[in-house]
Amino acid sequence: MNRIPSKLIRAYWIAVAMLFAGASILTAKYTPNETSMGVVQKIFYLHLPVAINTFLACLVAFVASIAYLWQRSAWWDDLAAAAGRIAVQLCAVVLATGMIWGRSAWNVWWTWSPRLTFSLVLFFLYVVYLVIRSSIEGRERRAVIGSVYAIIAFLDVPLVWLSARLLPDYIHPGNVSLPELAMKITLAVWFAPVTLLTVGLIATRFDLNRAQSLAAISKAASRRPEIRSASAVKVPTILGPKAMGQTEGVL
């Protein structure tokens, strides 16, 4: 398997860091404060891209799980596991930034509005996904059960997206208006580093999963000759009467 040169990987992460720094400076120096919420509204420029990328990570896990059940290739299972882990991390950031924003907007850290509730459910669904994967022995069995679960868990993603639009939600807005052009530019800029970060984290975790899977396969393959040789010299400890008679005749 061809590996990406370490210099390119290093350059990728340097570019991601520079984009984050640029987006932060843009938000602090260029983007005006929202009239009603003030400076805390600027957390929205991070909150929304992370939320969209959470959906992206869930989608990758969903597609990879379907592909695994279809092809039964460990490659797809390793990708699904990587995306599921990153989805949990991103969803935690979404919940944290949403709580900070909500404390200023609604004067409460949490409220059981439809979108917030479905977002919390999404977080726990993928936490359980990781727990299931870590608790099941046997690579194939773990991959099959994990794939089926990831496909079912993905059903909560459209519920999160549509909840504020289809269900009465007087707390969380379905759409956030950005009256200033600078606000729209800032939001668009933030999607670049967050998306690149998501892709990089999934790729890094996937690479680690592949290394662990290949090491496990290699270890299992190295043990097979030992098992064969042990079974080849195994002598029956109990002989039937007929076998005993044959043995005595030979002796």
The average pLDDT is 85
Low-confidence parts: 235-239, 246-251
Total count of strands: 0
Series of H and E elements: HHHHHHHH
In short:
The protein has one domain (6-250): Up-down Bundle (Four Helix Bundle (Hemerythrin (Met), subunit A)).
Structure in words:
- This protein is an all-alpha fold and about 250 residues long.
- The protein has one domain: Four Helix Bundle (Hemerythrin (Met), subunit A).
- Helices cover about 80% and strands about 0% of the residues.
- It contains 8 helices and no strands.
- The protein has helices at about 5-30, 45-70, 75-105, 115-135, 140-155, 155-165, 180-230, 240-250.
- Helix 2 packs parallel to helix 7.
- The longest helix is centred in the C-terminal third of the chain and has 52 residues, at about 180-230.
- The termini are far apart.
- The model is unreliable at about 235-240 and about 245-250 (pLDDT under 50).
Task: List key phrases describing it.
251 residues, mainly alpha, 8 helices, disordered C terminus
Question: How are the secondary structure elements laid out?
Answer:
Layout (H helix, E strand, L loop, with lengths): L5 H25 L13 H28 L2 H33 L7 H22 L3 H15 L2 H11 L14 H52 L8 H10 L1
